[in-house]
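We were asked to recover a plausible sequence for a given structure. The inputs and outputs are reproduced exactly as logged, with field labels preserved.

PROBLEM: sequence recovery
POSITIONS: 310
GIVEN STRUCTURE:
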């Protein structure tokens, strides 16, 4: 089973598509706006304000393009740029559970535009057992069943034989907790494999040999890794330029500057006596931005003071 975008070509070189980087106060939002020139915008103190850099990277020899980007080297105009979608390969025993999340709204739009490819693989297809089982009793006894190593090894090795992968992620309650910084970091990757566990867990050797990163969506346990995988993909894909109608929207999301977002309002200006703050109707952009920042700080102080302590 595969849920794909408009393009299905292999992208063996991570740097073969436009990328950029926009650091913020506590994290980095990485932007890949397809332009043929570089543009840097600084507002105020660069230690916390967004720094937006958009470039098209070209196939070139010598120094690696990623190193050129970090060093600020100009890229050769004689070479030809090429683009490819960000690809996710999700391995699960319940592929049907992931059909709906990827078939609607922003994730559907990203696939139709060819910006992202989402492929869902049924782990049972890689089982050699007659009943297509992918689990067995745990060594040492105990409750529950453990997912076996062979099916995972087969699908991972098959995928890696077709293209290079930046990360093999296992969704696990004991992984690092997903936050905006992690989503930003992953948004510049090209190809990502996501493994969804089930039952009691997966054979530890899978984690030791194949997994490069383990991610949790919170301190609680779900029936499997499918819903966390959908959460992760959504958090990452929405950051890719072209996915959201307004690309700057992601820059102002909660957590991008280590703060929660300020309150937002729309029409009508007066609803049953509940009015929109006058400052938002003033047309004074600097004062509006100042008000939003103050509101964001105050909301963060009340609801998530831990963010201000970091």
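RECOVERED SEQUENCE:
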């Amino acid at each position: 089973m595969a849920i794909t975008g408009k393009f299905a070509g292999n992208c063996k070189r991570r740097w073969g598509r436009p990328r950029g980087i926009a650091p913020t106060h506590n994290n980095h939002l990485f932007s890949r706006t397809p332009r043929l020139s570089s543009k840097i915008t600084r507002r105020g103190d660069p230690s916390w304000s967004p720094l937006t850099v958009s470039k098209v990277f070209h196939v070139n020899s010598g120094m690696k393009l990623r190193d050129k980007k970090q060093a600020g080297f100009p890229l050769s105009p004689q070479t030809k740029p090429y683009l490819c979608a960000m690809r996710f390969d999700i391995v699960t025993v319940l592929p049907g559970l992931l059909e709906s999340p990827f078939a609607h709204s922003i994730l559907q739009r990203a696939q139709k535009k060819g910006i992202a490819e989402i492929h869902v693989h049924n782990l049972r297809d890689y089982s050699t057992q007659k009943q297509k089982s992918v689990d067995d009793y745990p060594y040492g006894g105990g409750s529950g069943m453990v997912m076996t190593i062979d099916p995972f090894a087969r699908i991972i090795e098959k995928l890696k034989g077709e293209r290079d992968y930046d990360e093999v992620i296992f969704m696990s309650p004991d992984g690092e907790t997903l936050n905006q910084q992690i989503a930003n970091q992953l948004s510049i990757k090209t190809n990502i494999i996501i493994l969804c566990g089930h039952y009691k867990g997966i054979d530890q050797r899978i984690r030791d040999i194949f997994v490069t990163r383990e991610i949790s969506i919170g301190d609680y346990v779900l029936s499997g890794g499918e819903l966390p995988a959908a959460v992760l993909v959504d958090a990452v894909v929405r950051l890719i330029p072209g996915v959201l109608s307004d690309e700057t929207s992601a820059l102002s999301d909660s957590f991008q500057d280590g703060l929660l977002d300020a309150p937002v309002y729309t029409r009508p200006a007066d609803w049953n006596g509940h009015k929109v703050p006058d400052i938002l109707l003033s047309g004074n952009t600097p004062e509006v931005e100042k008000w939003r920042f103050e509101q964001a700080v105050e909301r963060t102080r009340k609801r998530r003071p831990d963010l201000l302590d970091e």
